[in-house]
Design a protein that fits this description.
The chain contains 4 helices and 11 strands, in the order E-H-E-E-H-E-E-E-E-E-E-H-E-H-E. With 190 residues, it is an alpha/beta fold. Helix 4 links the parallel strand 10 and strand 11.
Length: 190
């Protein structure tokens, strides 16, 4: 079986990967939720909250790191400094609280949803998607589509959540390391 990992490079624009590889399982990362992949992988805290706020996670398979729901009563014990409330959906009493060095984001969750928590590994969303595909043992071929490398433009560059996103050397290194460990799988860049 074939998996496609969608990179966010411009080289994949206009490519009809669903027609070209009709039976492939498609992993997208971050902003690719706008394209409805078969599974979405996101490890960026702010982007996770944006994706959930959009309603995407209700009906679409998502893999998020550090995504733990808890009773919203926990908010009463927190200082309101630096808290950004992302959404309040319906009568939910569960929320996810996470953040970075500058902000804490709170998103109320509407359970059941289709978010699966993945272990926190210090690699990018694309690296996590590749790792998940490899470790699933479902695929004998993995196609990396739109991984354009350093200096490339991101197809979502002007979207919220991508304000500081530029390709990094370590992303190439982490992909190479994952592929070396799973050398029984055929990998192709397109």
């Amino acid at each position: 079986m074939v998996a496609i990992i969608l990179g966010n490079g411009e080289s994949r624009l206009g490519r009809d990967y669903r027609t070209e590889f009709p039976n492939a399982f498609v992993y997208g990362c971050n902003g690719a939720y706008k394209e409805s992949p078969d599974a979405l992988v996101c490890v960026d805290t702010y982007m996770q909250h944006l994706i959930y706020k959009s309603g995407y996670c209700k009906d679409n398979l998502c893999y998020f790191s550090e995504w733990d729901s808890m009773p919203s009563l926990v908010l009463d014990m927190m200082s309101s400094d630096f808290i950004i409330l992302m959404n309040k959906q319906g009568d939910s009493n569960e929320c996810v609280i996470s953040g970075n060095e500058d902000n804490t984001y709170v998103t109320w969750v509407d359970l059941p949803d289709k978010v699966i928590k993945i272990p926190e590994v210090d690699i990018s969303s694309g690296g996590n998607a590749l790792l998940h595909a490899c470790e699933s043992e479902r695929f004998n071929e993995i196609i990396l589509l739109g991984f354009d490398g350093m200096g490339a433009e991101n197809v979502y560059q002007n979207d919220e959540g991508y304000e500081r996103s530029t390709p990094r050397n370590e992303w190439v290194q982490e992909r190479n390391s994952i592929m070396e460990k799973h050398n029984h799988i055929k990998f192709r860049y397109l």
